[in-house]
Design a protein that fits this description.
Main location: cytoplasm
Number of helices: 4
Number of domains: 1
Strand order of the largest sheet: 2-1-6-5-4-3
Structural class: alpha+beta
Organism: Lasallia pustulata
Function: Facilitates protein transport into the nucleus. Could be part of a multicomponent system of cytosolic factors that assemble at the pore complex during nuclear import.
Protein name: Nuclear transport factor 2
CATH topology: Nuclear Transport Factor 2, Chain: A
GO biological process, one term: protein import into nucleus
Length: 179
């Protein structure tokens, strides 16, 4: 049974979510690929890597597919120093962030990415080519549970090098947009 669940979780990520054409600033693949190789595998499929070539776009696809499914699987993306601002509520640390995401009052959610923009995020202005992070901004719509109308949202991720050739989410800011 667990194997069947893992298989369907893997196929969910591989199938992707409905999206419109994504627009973003291309980053050198060397910045995104270490993050992709390390984090875009499932715990039960450690040796199966999802073939990713576009770091920011594939990061958001992985993030939202996982969020729309077993949210506890997002744990590997956060660290103790990570911060989530969710609708003005600031949550610090991996455990607090996971507790917040898992406790959200809906059981089903589907994200539809409308736009995606990304750029380098330099940590040290004196050394602009070292310790480069990635800033990712997403806008889109989400549909929760049995609701008929989508809700617009924006979300910003700041991805930083983890010192092991990969990246983690340092900052995550989420806001519903009511217009």
């Amino acid at each position: 049974m667990a194997s069947k669940q893992n298989s369907s979780a893997l196929s969910l990520v591989l199938s992707g979510i409905p999206t419109r054409k994504l627009t973003y600033t291309k980053l050198p693949v060397s910045y995104a690929n270490p993050f992709v190789r390390r984090y875009y595998t499932f715990q039960h499929y450690q040796h199966i890597s999802i073939g990713l070539t576009d770091g920011p776009g594939e990061f958001t696809q992985f993030y939202y597919n996982t969020f729309d499914g077993p949210r506890q699987d997002l744990a590997s993306l956060y660290r103790a120093e990570s911060t989530l601002t969710f609708e003005s509520q600031e949550i610090n640390g991996r455990d607090g962030i996971l507790e917040k995401l898992i406790s959200l009052p809906f059981t089903r959610v589907a994200h539809q990415v409308a736009t995606l923009d990304a750029q380098r995020s330099t940590l040290n202005a004196q050394l602009p080519n070292e310790d480069t992070g990635i800033l990712v901004m997403v806008t889109g719509a989400l549909l929760v549970d049995e609701e008929q109308r989508t809700m617009n949202y924006s979300q910003v991720f700041q991805l930083l090098p983890n010192g092991e050739g990969s990246y983690f989410v340092l900052n995550d800011v989420f806001r519903l947009v009511f217009a």
